[in-house]
Amino acid sequence: MIISKEKTKFNKYGEMIQDLLNPESLPDPTSDVELIQTHISYVIIGDQFVYKIKKPVNFGFLDFSTLEKRKFFCEKEVELNRRLSEGIYLGVIPVKFDGNRYSLRDVKGEVVDWAVRMKRIPQDILMKEMFQKGRLNNSHIKSISKRISEFHKNAERSEEIDRFGLPESFRVNTDENFDQVEPYIGKTIDERAFHELKRWTDDFYRNKERLFHERINMAKIRDCHGDLHMEHICIGESVFVIDCIEFNDRFRYGDVISDIAFLLMDLDYNGGVELSNMLWKEYIEFSGDGHGEGILKFYKVYRAFVRGKVNSFLIDDESVDRKKKDIAIENARKYFRLAYSYIS
Question: How many Cβ atoms are within 10 Å of 69's Cβ, its own excluded?
């Protein structure tokens, strides 16, 4: 059994997670069990299947604080992710407690939580892994660009979704980001960079307001992925994408350029600027959306800032050990520096 070092650092969920790290607690045969956790999830990895349990947290923009909410968002995660990853998301199963042990098996007991069950994806087909091993080539970039542009063209749109493209609507996201990052000034972000990024963002809304309205009129506001970075893109016989945003519609509803900007930013962050430029060029060719150039920088700044924020949150997560917190601090600083580099 492979268990991550932070297993002894859990909050009140500790006993449940410890039990679920026993192969006998899982519904599918497995020899090894590994735990990975993010700021919002525990991910239990078996030989062939993965079980994702949402942490009982409430960050304002995300609320998994009750059993009913966690079930709802598990079901929504499966529904939404099937748009780009057919056959990967298998369903939602209960976590049960029989009075003695917690289990994901179909046993008698009280339902105490819910888990998304999905097929395990080989690490070597992840875009990030392929990039780091030098296996990501021009053909892959072209396939990714085509897959994403097709998804964007066919993604749902409506008058309600269009509202999220309005500058005053999107400003809710950026204002929230600055409010939530302010406590980390001097920890993960330089004070000067923070204020200059805020000033630049405010100026963009004031001076480029017409761009937001033009994008709405061009039908470019869609129900997108929302978390489109390299660790979520898989390149096998075809390209498929996992882990879209399910917990808050306003992070998923938006300009398709905001969606692709996340992936372009992620390539920049990891030192793949040339591939990032190629991906953007191919995306424009497949989508025909050359108009998006004018708003691309705005969304790349936004995406880098969000990643800096999310990594900053890990500093205050009691279930994360010191070593991982130190890594999160360095990652956050790098993301904030990238955001600042786009405007400087």
Answer: 17
Q: Which of 49, 63, 55 is nearest to 17 (CA)?
A: 55
Residue 93 bridge partners (DSSP)? 115
Calpha distance 164→221 (Å, rounded): 7
Instruction: Judge whether 40 and 11 are in contact, CB under 8 Å.
Output: no
Say how far apart CA 255 and CA 261 lie, in whole Å.
10
Cβ–Cβ < 8 Å for 203, 249: no
Q: How would you class 248 by CB atoms within 10 Å of its CB: exposed for 0-12, middle for 13-18, buried for 19 or more?
A: middle
Q: CA nearest 251: which of 117, 59, 87?
A: 59
Q: What angle do CA 57, 58, 64 make, to 5 degrees?
A: 60
pLDDT tens digits for 209-240?
999 999 999 999 999 999 999 999 999 989 99
